[in-house]
């Protein structure tokens, strides 16, 4: 076969392959696309805002001006410690602060925490998230299936609704969405906290959190 004929055969084939690859690149956008620091009219583009959902438990008054977004896990001992601090913070400033709680299952031992998060989601659907959270953190190293069932009985969850909720796709989707959001935010561990869509270093005291949130003491 002559060189001329080979060129006539291979060049169209290469063009087809190249075009196909170009289409594949267009189909996928990067997870963290580069943001322009300015637009054509000189305005800065909007910053990333952490999405909220009606499935997110809210601790405190919904209309409170200051918001802490907390990524936590019932099986995490440090999460338990900070939950105690944040509970005191909300009690001290009930009209100023709310916490949007997002469960992130990272614990594997002694019990995987994903089931506990499902129970927490279902407790929230019955408007009893705070009661469940408090009990789950007290027993955070004992969150077996039997323990979770006992907590459900102790806080009087409707057993029929609970079973339906635990098996519902929406419950699995809630955890999937939180995992995906954690990836986007590059969360490395729990607890992780955000204020004004920016990750903050957790404070060890109620007063420290008040300083982070710029709340004046009463």
TrEMBL record:
InterPro entries linked: Thioredoxin-like_fold, Thioredoxin-like_sf
Domain Thioredoxin-like fold: 54-213
Pfam families documented for this protein: Thioredoxin_4
Protein name, entry field: Thioredoxin-like fold domain-containing protein
Domain of life: Bacteria
